[in-house]
């Protein structure tokens, strides 16, 4: 008799649990909450329509998915040997697209490599053009060491040796 009561209790407990299907709820709780910890509203679950993922487990991979709301993500990566003691660099490139609140599709293309992260998109701001004086100073800063001595000797007619001007005197050494 006790076993029948336990079995009936288990069945009643299972029947009282909310039925959301086989793990597919119609809505998911929002990430935001009030100061008391209660969730604010509910957000619909957006299904993943397609997804692929490939890797050679040696650093080369690609990944993509498309969701039910039209957003898409694509990422690929590989290892680039820089020839230094640090070893290879993981180079990634990809894009993502999403529908904005204005019903436009926005796409961001990006690259992450030894030069940092760079993103482009028609909706992203672009920097103003670099002033000519700053561009010249960057060009001069990238010249090899001692270039200022070569420029000075060309202008003045002096010969520089060991970072000192030579005025026609024989070097003693």
Automatic annotation (TrEMBL):
Bilayer-crossing regions: none
Keywords, ordered alphabetically: Cuticle, Signal
GO molecular function: structural constituent of chitin-based larval cuticle
A cellular component term, taken from the record's GO annotations: chitin-based extracellular matrix
Pfam family, one: Chitin_bind_4
Organism whose genome encodes this protein: Allacma fusca
Name of this protein: Endocuticle structural glycoprotein SgAbd-2
Stretch forming the signal peptide: 1-16
């Amino acid at each position: 008799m006790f076993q029948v009561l336990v079995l009936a209790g288990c069945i009643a407990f299972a029947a009282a649990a909310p039925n959301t299907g086989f793990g597919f709820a119609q809505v998911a709780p929002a990430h935001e909450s009030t100061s008391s910890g209660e969730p604010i509203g509910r957000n619909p679950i957006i299904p993943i329509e397609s997804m692929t993922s490939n890797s050679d487990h040696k650093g080369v991979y690609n990944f993509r998915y498309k969701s039910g709301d039209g957003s898409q993500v694509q990422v690929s990566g590989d290892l680039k040997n820089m020839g230094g003691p640090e070893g290879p660099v993981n180079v990634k490139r990809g894009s993502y697209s999403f529908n904005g609140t204005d019903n436009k599709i926005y796409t961001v293309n990006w690259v992450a490599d030894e030069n940092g992260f760079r993103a482009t998109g028609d909706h992203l701001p672009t920097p103003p053009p670099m002033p000519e004086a700053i561009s010249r100073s960057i060009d001069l800063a990238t010249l090899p060491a001692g270039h200022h001595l070569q420029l000075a000797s060309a202008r003045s007619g002096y010969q520089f040796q060991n970072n000192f001007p030579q005025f026609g005197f024989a070097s003693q050494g």
